[in-house]
UniProtKB/TrEMBL annotation:
EC number: 5.3.1.17
NCBIfam families documented for this protein: PRK00924.1
Gene3D superfamilies (alphabetical): Jelly Rolls, pectin degrading enzyme 5-keto 4- deoxyuronate isomerase, domain 1
Catalytic activity of the protein: 5-dehydro-4-deoxy-D-glucuronate = 3-deoxy-D-glycero-2,5-hexodiulosonate
Ubl conjugation among keywords: no
Name of the protein this chain belongs to: 4-deoxy-L-threo-5-hexosulose-uronate ketol-isomerase
């Protein structure tokens, strides 16, 4: 079996106030997300969200069911979003091939039986994925950067000039609750998602990439009046509970993928927190 999904249980915000650095990392950080010829990930009890990576190198990898799902197929009761952060590659869904270039996305609806991830012919394939429970089935759909809904925010003066690419959102792709997108920071900008926000109706996960080996991102989390931070490197992800802010600043510009699931599909449903109100 080439699939390894581990379970992480939810954490109460009052408990997190007492976590030291290592315990924060153990509960929320996902470090070794890409492993050669493996599918790896974390099944989080926050909205039963799965975050993981797929790295086919010498062979194609089929999406196997896992013990946590108690289902014949991985997608019997779930939907899946994939964003390619490596070389151009191919994904086969029930016999149909989808070619994914770098930074292109694929949404796969509930009910798909056979999903196969192929090695890249143009470098290393790195497929980052998020999965959420689904109550109905929507069609599989590829989304390129030209198809994304784009929003440009911030400024060089505030060090947060960035472009948000909404890839798997309800204005682009029909889904049950899964939403994913990619934010690219301009050179000279380092801050993401500032002002910070929370949304009690949804959890979220961030995945950071396009970082040099010598660079790092400080990811901020916790309740607005009781913040914490986790230092992260390239190709690492972090879980963000509904009660937590999610923001970051890097030693250089970078790209990150955000994914979320929960009660609704309203992208703008958030409770903003002014920088001067953070503690």
């Amino acid at each position: 079996m080439h699939t390894n999904i581990v379970t992480r249980y939810g954490s109460h915000p009052d408990d997190v106030k007492n976590y030291d650095t290592q315990k924060l990392r153990d509960h929320f950080l996902i470090e070794d997300i890409f492993q050669d010829d493996k599918i790896t990930g974390v099944y989080s009890m926050f909205d039963r969200y799965i975050v993981g990576g797929i790295a086919p190198v010498s062979k194609a990898l089929e999406l196997e069911t896992v013990e946590q799902l108690k289902a014949e197929h991985f997608l019997d009761r779930r939907e899946l979003g994939i964003i390619n952060v490596g070389g151009s590659t191919k994904v086969t869904v029930d016999g149909t091939d989808y070619q994914l270039g770098t930074k292109e996305a694929l949404y796969i609806g509930s009910g798909a039986k056979e999903v196969v991830f192929h090695p890249s012919t143009e470098g290393q394939a790195y497929l980052y994925f998020n999965s959420a429970p689904a109550h109905t089935s929507f069609p599989t759909k590829k989304v390129g950067l030209d198809d994304a809904e784009k929003v440009e925010l911030g400024s060089m003066e505030e060090s947060n000039h960035r472009v948000i690419n909404k890839l798997i959102v309800n204005s682009v792709v029909e889904s049950c609750q899964l939403q994913m997108g990619m934010t690219q920071l301009k050179p000279g900008s380092v801050w993401n998602t500032m002002p910070a926000h929370t949304h009690d109706r949804r959890m979220e996960a961030y995945f950071y990439f396009d970082l040099a080996e010598t660079a790092a991102v400080c990811h901020y989390m916790g309740q607005p009046q009781e913040t914490r931070h986790i230092w992260m490197k390239n190709h690492q992800a972090v879980l963000s509970p509904a009660w937590s802010i999610h923001s970051g600043s890097g030693t250089s510009n970078y790209t990150f993928i955000w994914g979320m699931a929960g009660e609704n599909l309203d992208y703008g449903d958030m409770d903003k927190v002014a920088p001067t109100d953070l503690r």
